[in-house]
TrEMBL record:
This is Putative circularly permuted ATP-grasp superfamily protein. It comes from the Bacteria. SUPFAM superfamilies: Glutathione synthetase ATP-binding domain-like. Residues 485-496 have a biased composition (Gly residues). InterPro entries: ATP-dep_Glu-Cys_Ligase-2, CP_ATPgrasp_2, UCP005522. Residues 75-452 form the Circularly permuted ATP-grasp type domain. Coiled coil: none annotated. PANTHER family: BLR5612 PROTEIN, SLL1039 PROTEIN. It comes from Stakelama sediminis. Residues 470-496 are annotated as: Disordered.
Length: 496
């Protein structure tokens, strides 16, 4: 599948000479701005990101362990009406995910009623028996979710995967907007763009809202990071600083009598809410991996006692599992009583004999993924793979079919992107972020658009050579206006 057959979100199917009517102004901006000016702005953005330290780690590559994620100036744009429809589906899905997590670690009604095969959950490595019976404070397990979406046409959106463990990328959403406000202010005069800079405040409010019972009045919130060697450390420090809370490492915390304390130069301070960016396996050496040097001994005991809130909750990885994903339409129906408003991509579960046979017969046509994979690793994109790659993947698939799912190779939408030869269509996906405290999930009016910078590539992950774009959500013509601080000045985000 090549870019020629894909729907372009700005140009439609007509190409640069016949852009979609609602984006004529953006097409004119791309056409009329000199190439040298675009190049100057891109170099300025890269220099700024490098100065700020906005990098990600690529493990296993000695020559380049820290990289800048490439940033593209052409924004991805969502109209107000399509954003409203997307938001309804996203809220429904996250509510179902929270209900599912509470259920499988509690009563397990969905298993008792035969909606899911029990072995798919209870035998899954992502299911943490250590969490069974724990009800998270206020019944919220997935406080921060990133739901990855793909688009194939003007009104065709699909959920590609769910991220309820530690969805990353929100710092890029915020820094990309800062860069666009500074470098392309004319676009914010042309379009009424919803602001995203309130995200840290929304996240802090969410943290405070789920403080343990009796600690609601003035809870102490911290962000727990594994340390500066972690690939997302920039994001950890960025968010803690933006929220005005302490960024702590495991050595900064201790547990005494099932209460978590932060050690400061002024003495101990009780901690009530922890946004933890340490994986389950390493969180508590007394419960999970005993060799973990990144954990806080006893933190799970404090959590079980209800004395601390952990965001996101341990055990959430089961909701990210791609085999569980294939049942999400049934999960949504079971917990909400409604049909899913956002459809899944068609999925074959290789653990099922008929599906497994189909996948083996069509490997050159399908995208095959590890059920617990991430970052673009452990996957096969059949149409672009060599015969040798397909043969090697077939061996792994035959050895452990239960570890894989397969999906059709979708004609992912494209957005014009700067390439060596000038503007060219490149495939994109999208990760909007939702925050859930006490109340319904809130959808941030923006998100992380990832772009595959290689012509024809469908792999958008930064670790696989992808880049990012700003994501504009246009406001309805309601006479409202929003402003956002950026680049040392306040920019009106739209006409009026």
């Amino acid at each position: 599948m090549g870019t020629r057959t894909a729907f372009d979100e700005i140009w439609g199917h007509g190409g640069p000479e016949q852009p979609r009517e609602e984006f004529a102004a953006l097409a004119a901006w791309m056409r009329d701005t000199p190439a040298a000016e675009f190049e100057r702005r891109l170099q300025t953005a890269e220099a700024t990101f490098r100065q700020l330290g906005i990098t990600f780690a690529v493990y296993g590559e000695e020559d380049s362990s820290e990289r800048i994620i490439p940033f593209d100036l052409v924004p991805r744009i969502f109209m107000a009406d399509e954003w409203a429809r997307l938001s309804e589906g996203l809220v429904q899905r996250v509510e179902a995910i929270n209900a599912f997590l509470n259920d499988i670690y509690g009563e397990r009604r969905i298993l008792d009623e035969g909606v899911l095969p029990p072995e798919l959950v209870l035998g899954n490595p992502q299911f943490r028996t250590e969490v069974a019976g724990i009800r998270p404070p206020h019944g919220v397990a997935a406080h921060i979710c990133g739901i990855d979406l793909v688009r194939t046409g003007p009104d065709e959106f699909f959920v590609l995967e769910d991220n309820a463990r530690t969805p990353s990328g929100v710092s890029y959403m915020l820094e990309n907007r800062e860069a666009m406000l500074r470098l392309c202010p004319e676009l914010f005069r042309e379009f009424r763009v919803a602001a995203v800079d309130s995200y840290p405040d929304l996240l802090h409010d969410t943290m405070r809202s789920v403080a343990p019972q009796g600690r609601e009045s003035n809870p102490v919130c911290v962000l727990l990071t594994p340390g500066h060697f972690n690939s997302a450390y920039y994001e950890h420090s960025f968010l803690a600083d933006s929220m005005g809370i302490e960024l702590v490492e495991p050595a900064d915390l201790l547990v005494d009598d099932d209460i978590v304390w932060m050690q400061t130069i002024a003495g101990r301070v009780r901690v009530d809410v922890i946004y933890r960016r340490v994986d389950d396996d390493f969180l508590d050496p007394l419960v999970f991996r005993p060799d973990s040097m990144l954990g806080v001994p006893g933190i799970m005991s404090a959590y079980r006692a209800g004395n601390v809130t952990l965001m996101n909750a341990p055990g959430n990885g089961i909701a990210d599992d791609k085999a569980i994903y294939s049942y999400m339409p049934e999960i949504v129906r079971f917990y909400t009583g409604e049909e899913a408003k956002l459809p899944n991509v068609e999925t074959w579960r290789c653990r099922e004999p008929d599906s497994f046979k189909y996948v083996l017969d069509h490997l050159d046509e399908l995208v095959v993924k590890l059920v617990d994979g991430s970052g673009g690793y452990g996957m096969l994109v059949g149409p672009t793979a060599t015969k040798e790659e397909i043969a090697r993947f077939r061996e792994a698939l035959v050895a452990e079919p239960h570890r894989y799912i397969a999906q059709p190779t979708l004609a992912l939408s494209t957005v014009p992107t700067f390439a060596d030869q000038g503007l060219a269509p490149r495939h994109v996906d999208f990760r909007p972020f939702l925050l859930t405290g006490r109340g319904r999930p809130q959808v941030v009016p923006g998100g992380l658009t990832r772009v595959a910078l290689k012509a024809g590539s469908l792999v958008v992950n930064s670790s696989q050579g992808g880049g990012t774009k700003d994501s504009f959500v246009l406001m309805a013509d309601s006479g409202q206006s929003q402003s956002q601080s950026g680049g040392g000045q306040t920019q009106s985000q739209g006409r009026g």
